[in-house]
Amino acid sequence: MEYLIHILILICLYTILSASLNLIAGYTGLLSIAHAAFYGVGAYVAALMALHLQSSFLLNIICAIVLSGLLGALVGIPSLRIRDDYFVIVTFAFQVITFSILNNWVSFTGGPMGLPGIPQPELFGLKISSHLGFLALIGFFCVVTLLITRQIVLSPFGRVLKAIREDEVFTQAAGKNVATFKVLVFVIGAGMASLAGVMYAYYISFIDPTSFTVMESIFIISIVIIGGAGSFWGPVVGAIVLVLLPELLRFVGMPSSIAANIRQILYGGLLVAFMMWRPRGFLGEYAFQNKEARE
Amino acid sequence: MSHRVLEVKRLGKNFDGIKALADFSCSLQPEEILGLIGPNGAGKTTLFNVASGFIAPDTGKILFNNNDITSAPPHRITRLGISRTFQNLRFIRQISVLDNVLLSFQDQPGEKLRNVFFNWPQCREQENSNRKEAMTLLEETGLSHKAGDPAEGLSYGQQKLLSLVCCLATRSEVLLLDEPVAGIAPERIDQILRIIRSLPEQGKSVILIEHNLDAVMQVCDRVIFMDAGRKVSEGTPEEVRNDPRVIEAYID
Predict the structure, then answer these.
(1) Nearest C-alpha neighbor of A33 from the set A114, A90, A110
(2) pLDDT at position A289, please?
(3) CATH number of the B1-81+172-252 domain
Protein backbone atom coordinates (compact mmCIF):
# COMPACT_ATOMS: atom_id res chain seq x y z
CA MET A 1 0.00 0.00 0.00
CA GLU A 2 2.80 2.42 0.95
CA TYR A 3 4.45 1.56 -2.34
CA LEU A 4 1.33 2.36 -4.33
CA ILE A 5 0.97 5.70 -2.55
CA HIS A 6 4.60 6.46 -3.25
CA ILE A 7 4.01 5.86 -6.97
CA LEU A 8 0.95 8.13 -6.92
CA ILE A 9 2.95 10.87 -5.18
CA LEU A 10 5.63 10.61 -7.88
CA ILE A 11 2.98 10.85 -10.58
CA CYS A 12 1.59 14.01 -8.97
CA LEU A 13 5.09 15.47 -8.64
CA TYR A 14 5.93 14.87 -12.29
CA THR A 15 2.53 16.08 -13.40
CA ILE A 16 3.22 19.44 -11.75
CA LEU A 17 6.67 19.57 -13.35
CA SER A 18 5.57 18.59 -16.82
CA ALA A 19 2.37 20.66 -16.78
CA SER A 20 4.46 23.74 -16.00
CA LEU A 21 7.03 22.93 -18.67
CA ASN A 22 4.14 22.29 -21.06
CA LEU A 23 3.10 25.94 -20.69
CA ILE A 24 6.60 27.05 -21.72
CA ALA A 25 7.50 24.41 -24.29
CA GLY A 26 4.20 22.94 -25.43
CA TYR A 27 2.04 26.04 -25.63
CA THR A 28 4.57 28.81 -26.23
CA GLY A 29 7.07 26.69 -28.17
CA LEU A 30 10.11 27.68 -26.10
CA LEU A 31 12.00 24.43 -25.59
CA SER A 32 13.78 24.77 -22.26
CA ILE A 33 16.10 22.35 -20.51
CA ALA A 34 16.33 24.48 -17.41
CA HIS A 35 13.28 23.02 -15.73
CA ALA A 36 15.14 20.86 -13.22
CA ALA A 37 17.00 24.02 -12.18
CA PHE A 38 13.75 25.75 -11.17
CA TYR A 39 12.66 22.52 -9.53
CA GLY A 40 15.95 22.42 -7.59
CA VAL A 41 15.78 26.07 -6.58
CA GLY A 42 12.34 25.39 -5.08
CA ALA A 43 13.60 22.37 -3.17
CA TYR A 44 16.68 24.16 -1.82
CA VAL A 45 14.83 27.33 -0.83
CA ALA A 46 12.29 25.28 1.12
CA ALA A 47 14.93 23.04 2.69
CA LEU A 48 17.23 25.87 3.72
CA MET A 49 14.39 27.94 5.15
CA ALA A 50 12.92 25.00 7.01
CA LEU A 51 16.31 24.00 8.44
CA HIS A 52 17.73 27.40 9.33
CA LEU A 53 14.72 29.63 9.93
CA GLN A 54 12.20 27.01 10.99
CA SER A 55 9.76 29.06 8.89
CA SER A 56 6.33 27.69 8.07
CA PHE A 57 5.54 25.42 5.16
CA LEU A 58 3.33 27.96 3.37
CA LEU A 59 5.87 30.78 3.73
CA ASN A 60 8.54 28.51 2.28
CA ILE A 61 6.32 27.73 -0.69
CA ILE A 62 5.74 31.41 -1.34
CA CYS A 63 9.44 32.28 -1.09
CA ALA A 64 10.41 29.38 -3.35
CA ILE A 65 7.87 30.42 -5.97
CA VAL A 66 8.94 34.08 -5.87
CA LEU A 67 12.67 33.35 -6.16
CA SER A 68 12.19 30.74 -8.84
CA GLY A 69 9.83 33.05 -10.70
CA LEU A 70 12.47 35.77 -10.74
CA LEU A 71 15.02 33.29 -12.09
CA GLY A 72 12.39 32.28 -14.65
CA ALA A 73 12.23 35.87 -15.85
CA LEU A 74 16.02 35.87 -16.08
CA VAL A 75 15.95 32.82 -18.35
CA GLY A 76 12.97 34.13 -20.30
CA ILE A 77 14.64 37.41 -21.23
CA PRO A 78 17.22 35.89 -23.63
CA SER A 79 14.34 34.23 -25.50
CA LEU A 80 13.44 37.68 -26.80
CA ARG A 81 16.57 37.83 -28.92
CA ILE A 82 17.79 34.24 -29.20
CA ARG A 83 15.75 31.64 -30.99
CA ASP A 84 15.26 27.91 -31.38
CA ASP A 85 18.44 25.83 -30.96
CA TYR A 86 20.42 28.73 -29.58
CA PHE A 87 17.82 29.37 -26.93
CA VAL A 88 17.96 25.69 -25.91
CA ILE A 89 21.69 26.18 -25.33
CA VAL A 90 21.03 29.23 -23.13
CA THR A 91 18.62 27.24 -20.95
CA PHE A 92 21.12 24.39 -20.88
CA ALA A 93 23.76 26.81 -19.58
CA PHE A 94 21.42 28.05 -16.87
CA GLN A 95 20.75 24.46 -15.84
CA VAL A 96 24.45 23.63 -15.63
CA ILE A 97 25.26 26.81 -13.67
CA THR A 98 22.48 26.12 -11.17
CA PHE A 99 23.68 22.57 -10.67
CA SER A 100 27.27 23.76 -10.18
CA ILE A 101 26.20 26.25 -7.53
CA LEU A 102 24.18 23.64 -5.66
CA ASN A 103 27.05 21.19 -5.92
CA ASN A 104 29.94 23.50 -5.04
CA TRP A 105 28.69 26.07 -2.57
CA VAL A 106 29.26 23.60 0.22
CA SER A 107 28.89 25.99 3.16
CA PHE A 108 25.43 27.04 2.02
CA THR A 109 23.89 24.12 0.15
CA GLY A 110 25.84 21.28 1.70
CA GLY A 111 27.38 20.50 -1.69
CA PRO A 112 27.27 16.85 -2.76
CA MET A 113 26.38 15.81 0.79
CA GLY A 114 23.06 17.53 0.40
CA LEU A 115 20.71 18.73 3.09
CA PRO A 116 19.38 16.03 5.41
CA GLY A 117 16.71 16.22 8.09
CA ILE A 118 14.11 18.43 6.46
CA PRO A 119 11.19 18.45 8.93
CA GLN A 120 7.73 17.21 8.10
CA PRO A 121 5.41 19.88 6.75
CA GLU A 122 2.92 21.45 9.09
CA LEU A 123 -0.26 22.97 7.77
CA PHE A 124 -2.64 24.90 10.04
CA GLY A 125 -1.20 23.17 13.09
CA LEU A 126 -1.55 19.79 11.46
CA LYS A 127 1.61 17.75 10.97
CA ILE A 128 1.59 15.74 7.79
CA SER A 129 3.49 12.61 8.66
CA SER A 130 1.80 9.74 6.81
CA HIS A 131 2.28 8.90 3.16
CA LEU A 132 -1.44 9.19 2.64
CA GLY A 133 -1.49 12.66 4.17
CA PHE A 134 1.30 13.70 1.86
CA LEU A 135 -0.50 12.26 -1.14
CA ALA A 136 -3.53 14.39 -0.25
CA LEU A 137 -1.29 17.46 0.01
CA ILE A 138 0.56 16.99 -3.27
CA GLY A 139 -2.64 15.84 -4.96
CA PHE A 140 -4.22 19.12 -3.95
CA PHE A 141 -1.30 21.16 -5.34
CA CYS A 142 -1.30 19.05 -8.48
CA VAL A 143 -4.98 19.79 -9.09
CA VAL A 144 -4.42 23.49 -8.39
CA THR A 145 -1.54 23.55 -10.89
CA LEU A 146 -3.67 21.85 -13.52
CA LEU A 147 -6.56 24.23 -12.90
CA ILE A 148 -4.25 27.22 -13.24
CA THR A 149 -2.79 25.93 -16.50
CA ARG A 150 -6.31 25.23 -17.77
CA GLN A 151 -7.42 28.75 -16.90
CA ILE A 152 -4.38 30.12 -18.72
CA VAL A 153 -4.56 28.07 -21.90
CA LEU A 154 -8.28 28.61 -22.40
CA SER A 155 -7.99 32.38 -21.95
CA PRO A 156 -7.14 34.98 -24.59
CA PHE A 157 -3.72 35.04 -22.89
CA GLY A 158 -3.27 31.38 -23.81
CA ARG A 159 -4.38 32.08 -27.36
CA VAL A 160 -1.50 34.53 -27.69
CA LEU A 161 0.93 31.92 -26.32
CA LYS A 162 -0.09 29.46 -29.02
CA ALA A 163 0.17 32.19 -31.64
CA ILE A 164 3.74 32.95 -30.50
CA ARG A 165 4.57 29.27 -30.90
CA GLU A 166 3.28 29.20 -34.45
CA ASP A 167 4.27 32.60 -35.86
CA GLU A 168 5.93 35.35 -33.89
CA VAL A 169 5.90 37.82 -36.73
CA PHE A 170 2.15 37.56 -37.22
CA THR A 171 1.60 37.78 -33.46
CA GLN A 172 3.54 41.03 -33.34
CA ALA A 173 1.64 42.35 -36.33
CA ALA A 174 -1.56 41.51 -34.43
CA GLY A 175 -0.42 43.99 -31.79
CA LYS A 176 0.86 41.61 -29.12
CA ASN A 177 3.96 42.40 -27.11
CA VAL A 178 5.59 39.00 -27.60
CA ALA A 179 8.37 39.83 -25.11
CA THR A 180 6.00 40.29 -22.17
CA PHE A 181 4.19 37.05 -22.89
CA LYS A 182 7.41 35.04 -23.13
CA VAL A 183 8.82 36.38 -19.88
CA LEU A 184 5.51 35.93 -18.06
CA VAL A 185 5.13 32.32 -19.17
CA PHE A 186 8.63 31.60 -17.89
CA VAL A 187 7.82 33.18 -14.55
CA ILE A 188 4.67 31.07 -14.19
CA GLY A 189 6.36 27.86 -15.36
CA ALA A 190 9.36 28.35 -13.08
CA GLY A 191 7.13 29.17 -10.13
CA MET A 192 5.14 25.97 -10.61
CA ALA A 193 8.29 23.87 -10.99
CA SER A 194 9.61 25.27 -7.72
CA LEU A 195 6.35 24.25 -6.04
CA ALA A 196 7.14 20.69 -7.11
CA GLY A 197 10.62 21.17 -5.67
CA VAL A 198 9.23 22.23 -2.29
CA MET A 199 7.00 19.16 -2.26
CA TYR A 200 9.90 16.90 -3.13
CA ALA A 201 12.12 18.31 -0.38
CA TYR A 202 9.46 17.83 2.28
CA TYR A 203 8.50 14.40 1.01
CA ILE A 204 11.97 12.84 0.80
CA SER A 205 13.26 14.98 3.71
CA PHE A 206 16.73 14.85 2.18
CA ILE A 207 17.90 16.63 -0.98
CA ASP A 208 21.16 16.64 -2.89
CA PRO A 209 22.13 18.15 -6.26
CA THR A 210 21.90 14.86 -8.18
CA SER A 211 18.10 15.14 -8.22
CA PHE A 212 18.33 18.36 -10.24
CA THR A 213 20.67 17.53 -13.11
CA VAL A 214 20.30 17.98 -16.84
CA MET A 215 19.08 14.37 -16.97
CA GLU A 216 16.14 15.36 -14.81
CA SER A 217 15.33 18.25 -17.15
CA ILE A 218 15.43 15.86 -20.08
CA PHE A 219 13.20 13.44 -18.23
CA ILE A 220 10.61 16.21 -17.73
CA ILE A 221 10.85 17.12 -21.41
CA SER A 222 10.32 13.45 -22.28
CA ILE A 223 7.12 13.46 -20.25
CA VAL A 224 5.89 16.55 -22.11
CA ILE A 225 6.77 15.16 -25.54
CA ILE A 226 5.53 11.62 -24.96
CA GLY A 227 2.35 12.80 -23.25
CA GLY A 228 1.74 15.36 -25.94
CA ALA A 229 3.09 18.90 -26.08
CA GLY A 230 0.46 21.61 -26.09
CA SER A 231 -2.28 19.33 -24.81
CA PHE A 232 -3.90 19.82 -21.43
CA TRP A 233 -3.98 16.13 -20.42
CA GLY A 234 -0.67 15.32 -22.10
CA PRO A 235 1.50 15.92 -19.01
CA VAL A 236 -0.79 13.76 -16.87
CA VAL A 237 -0.67 10.88 -19.35
CA GLY A 238 3.08 11.31 -19.85
CA ALA A 239 3.75 11.37 -16.12
CA ILE A 240 1.71 8.21 -15.55
CA VAL A 241 3.43 6.34 -18.39
CA LEU A 242 6.97 7.36 -17.58
CA VAL A 243 6.66 6.88 -13.83
CA LEU A 244 5.01 3.47 -14.17
CA LEU A 245 7.27 2.12 -16.89
CA PRO A 246 10.38 1.47 -14.73
CA GLU A 247 8.15 0.04 -12.00
CA LEU A 248 6.83 -2.48 -14.52
CA LEU A 249 10.41 -3.50 -15.24
CA ARG A 250 10.76 -4.29 -11.57
CA PHE A 251 7.78 -6.62 -11.76
CA VAL A 252 9.20 -8.42 -14.77
CA GLY A 253 11.81 -9.61 -12.29
CA MET A 254 14.78 -7.71 -13.57
CA PRO A 255 17.52 -7.29 -10.96
CA SER A 256 17.52 -3.71 -9.75
CA SER A 257 21.14 -3.10 -10.81
CA ILE A 258 20.23 -3.84 -14.43
CA ALA A 259 16.81 -2.19 -14.23
CA ALA A 260 18.36 1.16 -13.33
CA ASN A 261 20.47 1.11 -16.49
CA ILE A 262 17.70 -0.29 -18.65
CA ARG A 263 15.56 2.64 -17.54
CA GLN A 264 17.83 5.20 -19.18
CA ILE A 265 17.96 3.15 -22.38
CA LEU A 266 14.22 2.77 -22.31
CA TYR A 267 13.58 6.50 -21.92
CA GLY A 268 16.05 7.29 -24.67
CA GLY A 269 14.57 4.68 -26.99
CA LEU A 270 11.04 5.82 -26.26
CA LEU A 271 11.92 9.44 -26.95
CA VAL A 272 13.57 8.57 -30.26
CA ALA A 273 10.64 6.37 -31.24
CA PHE A 274 8.12 9.11 -30.47
CA MET A 275 10.11 11.77 -32.30
CA MET A 276 10.23 9.51 -35.36
CA TRP A 277 6.74 8.08 -35.50
CA ARG A 278 4.57 10.21 -33.32
CA PRO A 279 6.16 13.61 -32.70
CA ARG A 280 2.90 14.88 -31.28
CA GLY A 281 3.00 12.38 -28.41
CA PHE A 282 -0.06 10.56 -27.16
CA LEU A 283 -2.36 13.57 -27.06
CA GLY A 284 -0.40 16.51 -28.40
CA GLU A 285 -1.32 19.09 -30.96
CA TYR A 286 2.18 20.45 -31.40
CA ALA A 287 5.26 18.69 -32.71
CA PHE A 288 8.76 19.96 -32.04
CA GLN A 289 10.24 20.29 -35.46
CA ASN A 290 12.47 22.54 -37.37
CA LYS A 291 10.37 25.66 -38.10
CA GLU A 292 11.61 25.80 -41.70
CA ALA A 293 10.77 22.13 -42.22
CA ARG A 294 7.15 22.79 -41.33
CA GLU A 295 6.69 25.68 -43.73
CA MET B 1 -2.57 71.91 -46.40
CA SER B 2 -4.84 69.02 -45.67
CA HIS B 3 -4.27 66.62 -42.78
CA ARG B 4 -2.06 63.62 -43.43
CA VAL B 5 -2.61 60.33 -41.67
CA LEU B 6 0.73 58.91 -42.60
CA GLU B 7 3.77 60.82 -43.69
CA VAL B 8 6.92 59.13 -44.91
CA LYS B 9 9.89 61.49 -44.95
CA ARG B 10 13.06 60.79 -46.94
CA LEU B 11 13.31 57.16 -45.94
CA GLY B 12 16.52 55.30 -46.73
CA LYS B 13 17.41 51.65 -46.18
CA ASN B 14 20.35 49.64 -47.44
CA PHE B 15 20.72 45.88 -47.42
CA ASP B 16 24.37 44.91 -47.92
CA GLY B 17 24.92 47.86 -50.19
CA ILE B 18 21.71 47.39 -52.13
CA LYS B 19 19.44 50.40 -51.84
CA ALA B 20 16.00 49.05 -50.95
CA LEU B 21 14.76 52.55 -50.18
CA ALA B 22 16.54 55.71 -51.28
CA ASP B 23 15.26 59.07 -50.15
CA PHE B 24 11.68 57.88 -50.45
CA SER B 25 8.89 60.22 -49.38
CA CYS B 26 5.15 59.96 -49.64
CA SER B 27 2.05 60.74 -47.66
CA LEU B 28 -1.39 59.31 -47.16
CA GLN B 29 -4.53 61.44 -46.86
CA PRO B 30 -7.44 60.40 -44.67
CA GLU B 31 -9.81 57.98 -46.40
CA GLU B 32 -7.53 57.59 -49.35
CA ILE B 33 -6.48 54.44 -51.17
CA LEU B 34 -2.91 54.77 -52.37
CA GLY B 35 -1.49 52.21 -54.78
CA LEU B 36 2.17 51.26 -54.83
CA ILE B 37 3.38 49.62 -58.00
CA GLY B 38 6.77 48.76 -59.38
CA PRO B 39 8.96 45.85 -60.36
CA ASN B 40 10.14 43.22 -57.90
CA GLY B 41 12.82 44.60 -55.64
CA ALA B 42 11.58 48.16 -56.04
CA GLY B 43 11.33 48.52 -52.26
CA LYS B 44 7.57 48.32 -51.84
CA THR B 45 7.55 45.59 -49.21
CA THR B 46 10.58 47.16 -47.52
CA LEU B 47 8.50 50.32 -47.12
CA PHE B 48 5.78 48.24 -45.42
CA ASN B 49 8.35 46.52 -43.19
CA VAL B 50 9.69 49.88 -42.10
CA ALA B 51 6.25 51.45 -41.63
CA SER B 52 5.04 48.48 -39.54
CA GLY B 53 8.16 48.48 -37.36
CA PHE B 54 9.71 45.20 -38.47
CA ILE B 55 12.77 46.91 -39.98
CA ALA B 56 14.46 50.07 -38.73
CA PRO B 57 15.30 52.54 -41.50
CA ASP B 58 18.84 53.89 -41.95
CA THR B 59 17.62 57.42 -42.50
CA GLY B 60 14.32 59.28 -42.58
CA LYS B 61 11.19 59.43 -40.50
CA ILE B 62 7.63 58.17 -40.44
CA LEU B 63 4.86 60.23 -38.87
CA PHE B 64 1.46 58.81 -38.00
CA ASN B 65 -1.04 61.57 -37.23
CA ASN B 66 1.97 63.82 -36.62
CA ASN B 67 3.54 61.43 -34.08
CA ASP B 68 6.97 60.08 -34.86
CA ILE B 69 6.69 56.29 -35.03
CA THR B 70 10.05 55.60 -36.69
CA SER B 71 11.58 52.39 -35.28
CA ALA B 72 8.75 51.80 -32.81
CA PRO B 73 8.23 48.06 -32.21
CA PRO B 74 5.68 46.32 -34.46
CA HIS B 75 3.14 45.59 -31.74
CA ARG B 76 3.06 49.24 -30.66
CA ILE B 77 2.53 50.42 -34.22
CA THR B 78 -0.40 48.04 -34.60
CA ARG B 79 -1.88 49.26 -31.34
CA LEU B 80 -1.51 52.86 -32.50
CA GLY B 81 -3.54 52.04 -35.59
CA ILE B 82 -1.41 50.85 -38.48
CA SER B 83 -1.91 47.25 -39.43
CA ARG B 84 -0.58 45.18 -42.29
CA THR B 85 -0.93 41.96 -44.23
CA PHE B 86 1.96 39.89 -45.51
CA GLN B 87 2.78 38.92 -49.06
CA ASN B 88 3.60 35.38 -47.99
CA LEU B 89 0.36 35.11 -46.02
CA ARG B 90 0.89 34.99 -42.33
CA PHE B 91 -1.74 33.74 -39.93
CA ILE B 92 -1.80 31.00 -37.32
CA ARG B 93 -2.40 27.76 -39.15
CA GLN B 94 -2.97 25.46 -36.19
CA ILE B 95 -5.76 27.43 -34.53
CA SER B 96 -9.26 28.00 -35.86
CA VAL B 97 -10.22 30.68 -38.34
CA LEU B 98 -12.30 32.33 -35.63
CA ASP B 99 -9.37 32.32 -33.19
CA ASN B 100 -7.20 34.03 -35.78
CA VAL B 101 -9.70 36.87 -35.99
CA LEU B 102 -10.07 36.99 -32.19
CA LEU B 103 -6.30 37.17 -31.82
CA SER B 104 -6.26 40.28 -33.96
CA PHE B 105 -8.50 42.38 -31.71
CA GLN B 106 -6.66 44.96 -29.64
CA ASP B 107 -6.75 45.77 -25.94
CA GLN B 108 -8.33 42.54 -24.78
CA PRO B 109 -8.59 42.42 -21.00
CA GLY B 110 -8.25 38.63 -21.16
CA GLU B 111 -4.73 38.96 -22.53
CA LYS B 112 -3.54 40.43 -19.26
CA LEU B 113 -2.30 37.67 -16.99
CA ARG B 114 -3.79 39.05 -13.79
CA ASN B 115 -7.21 39.24 -15.42
CA VAL B 116 -6.97 35.56 -16.30
CA PHE B 117 -7.22 34.85 -12.58
CA PHE B 118 -8.84 37.79 -10.88
CA ASN B 119 -11.21 39.23 -13.38
CA TRP B 120 -12.36 36.42 -15.57
CA PRO B 121 -16.11 37.20 -15.57
CA GLN B 122 -15.38 40.51 -17.26
CA CYS B 123 -12.95 38.83 -19.63
CA ARG B 124 -15.54 36.26 -20.57
CA GLU B 125 -18.06 38.99 -21.32
CA GLN B 126 -15.56 40.84 -23.49
CA GLU B 127 -14.58 37.58 -25.16
CA ASN B 128 -18.20 36.83 -26.00
CA SER B 129 -18.77 40.22 -27.54
CA ASN B 130 -15.48 39.90 -29.48
CA ARG B 131 -16.66 36.51 -30.68
CA LYS B 132 -19.88 38.05 -32.02
CA GLU B 133 -17.97 40.78 -33.75
CA ALA B 134 -15.53 38.29 -35.24
CA MET B 135 -18.43 36.18 -36.52
CA THR B 136 -19.98 39.29 -38.09
CA LEU B 137 -16.71 40.01 -39.89
CA LEU B 138 -16.51 36.40 -41.06
CA GLU B 139 -20.13 36.45 -42.22
CA GLU B 140 -19.59 39.62 -44.19
CA THR B 141 -16.68 38.00 -45.98
CA GLY B 142 -18.34 34.63 -46.47
CA LEU B 143 -15.96 32.70 -44.22
CA SER B 144 -18.38 32.04 -41.37
CA HIS B 145 -18.95 28.39 -42.39
CA LYS B 146 -15.21 27.84 -41.85
CA ALA B 147 -15.05 29.63 -38.49
CA GLY B 148 -14.40 26.51 -36.41
CA ASP B 149 -11.95 24.86 -38.83
CA PRO B 150 -8.19 25.08 -38.45
CA ALA B 151 -6.97 27.95 -40.61
CA GLU B 152 -4.56 25.67 -42.49
CA GLY B 153 -7.53 23.99 -44.19
CA LEU B 154 -8.53 27.10 -46.12
CA SER B 155 -8.07 27.45 -49.86
CA TYR B 156 -5.50 29.99 -51.05
CA GLY B 157 -8.16 32.56 -51.84
CA GLN B 158 -9.79 32.07 -48.47
CA GLN B 159 -6.40 32.46 -46.80
CA LYS B 160 -5.95 35.82 -48.52
CA LEU B 161 -9.39 36.80 -47.31
CA LEU B 162 -8.60 35.69 -43.76
CA SER B 163 -5.42 37.81 -43.73
CA LEU B 164 -7.51 40.78 -44.75
CA VAL B 165 -10.15 40.04 -42.12
CA CYS B 166 -7.47 39.79 -39.41
CA CYS B 167 -6.08 43.10 -40.55
CA LEU B 168 -9.56 44.64 -40.35
CA ALA B 169 -10.11 43.12 -36.90
CA THR B 170 -7.28 45.22 -35.48
CA ARG B 171 -9.61 48.19 -36.21
CA SER B 172 -6.63 50.12 -37.48
CA GLU B 173 -6.98 53.49 -39.11
CA VAL B 174 -4.34 52.69 -41.70
CA LEU B 175 -4.15 49.36 -43.50
CA LEU B 176 -1.05 48.30 -45.40
CA LEU B 177 -2.10 45.56 -47.79
CA ASP B 178 0.68 43.58 -49.46
CA GLU B 179 -0.59 41.96 -52.68
CA PRO B 180 -4.10 41.15 -51.43
CA VAL B 181 -5.29 39.77 -54.76
CA ALA B 182 -2.20 38.11 -56.23
CA GLY B 183 -2.70 34.58 -57.45
CA ILE B 184 -6.39 34.10 -56.75
CA ALA B 185 -9.52 33.49 -58.83
CA PRO B 186 -11.28 36.44 -60.56
CA GLU B 187 -14.48 36.18 -58.45
CA ARG B 188 -12.41 36.28 -55.31
CA ILE B 189 -10.47 39.28 -56.65
CA ASP B 190 -13.75 41.17 -57.16
CA GLN B 191 -14.86 40.32 -53.64
CA ILE B 192 -11.62 41.51 -52.04
CA LEU B 193 -11.56 44.68 -54.14
CA ARG B 194 -15.12 45.45 -53.03
CA ILE B 195 -14.03 45.15 -49.41
CA ILE B 196 -11.03 47.42 -49.98
CA ARG B 197 -13.18 49.93 -51.85
CA SER B 198 -15.55 50.11 -48.87
CA LEU B 199 -12.81 50.93 -46.34
CA PRO B 200 -12.66 54.74 -46.85
CA GLU B 201 -16.35 55.00 -45.94
CA GLN B 202 -15.41 53.52 -42.58
CA GLY B 203 -12.81 56.24 -42.10
CA LYS B 204 -9.87 54.03 -42.99
CA SER B 205 -6.92 54.78 -45.27
CA VAL B 206 -5.14 52.15 -47.30
CA ILE B 207 -1.80 51.65 -48.98
CA LEU B 208 -2.00 48.85 -51.47
CA ILE B 209 0.91 46.98 -53.03
CA GLU B 210 -0.25 45.07 -56.07
CA HIS B 211 1.14 43.73 -59.31
CA ASN B 212 -2.32 43.36 -60.78
CA LEU B 213 -2.53 46.74 -62.53
CA ASP B 214 -6.22 46.41 -63.38
CA ALA B 215 -6.99 46.00 -59.69
CA VAL B 216 -4.86 49.02 -58.80
CA MET B 217 -6.55 51.16 -61.45
CA GLN B 218 -9.98 50.08 -60.18
CA VAL B 219 -9.62 50.89 -56.50
CA CYS B 220 -6.85 53.44 -56.02
CA ASP B 221 -7.33 57.18 -55.72
CA ARG B 222 -3.67 57.83 -56.30
CA VAL B 223 -0.77 55.68 -57.48
CA ILE B 224 2.97 55.81 -56.89
CA PHE B 225 5.32 53.97 -59.19
CA MET B 226 8.53 52.92 -57.47
CA ASP B 227 11.78 51.58 -58.83
CA ALA B 228 15.09 50.87 -57.09
CA GLY B 229 13.82 52.36 -53.86
CA ARG B 230 12.81 55.68 -55.43
CA LYS B 231 9.57 57.29 -56.38
CA VAL B 232 9.55 57.46 -60.18
CA SER B 233 6.06 58.67 -60.87
CA GLU B 234 3.05 59.78 -58.87
CA GLY B 235 -0.48 60.81 -59.76
CA THR B 236 -3.96 59.57 -60.51
CA PRO B 237 -4.12 56.03 -61.87
CA GLU B 238 -4.62 57.49 -65.38
CA GLU B 239 -1.59 59.74 -65.15
CA VAL B 240 0.70 57.01 -63.88
CA ARG B 241 -0.55 54.52 -66.44
CA ASN B 242 0.30 56.95 -69.22
CA ASP B 243 3.67 57.97 -67.84
CA PRO B 244 6.27 56.87 -70.43
CA ARG B 245 8.69 55.76 -67.68
CA VAL B 246 6.05 53.44 -66.26
CA ILE B 247 5.14 52.08 -69.67
CA GLU B 248 8.79 51.44 -70.35
CA ALA B 249 9.26 49.59 -67.06
CA TYR B 250 6.26 47.37 -67.63
CA ILE B 251 7.13 46.57 -71.24
CA ASP B 252 10.69 45.57 -70.37
Answers:
(1) A90
(2) 58
(3) 3.40.50.300
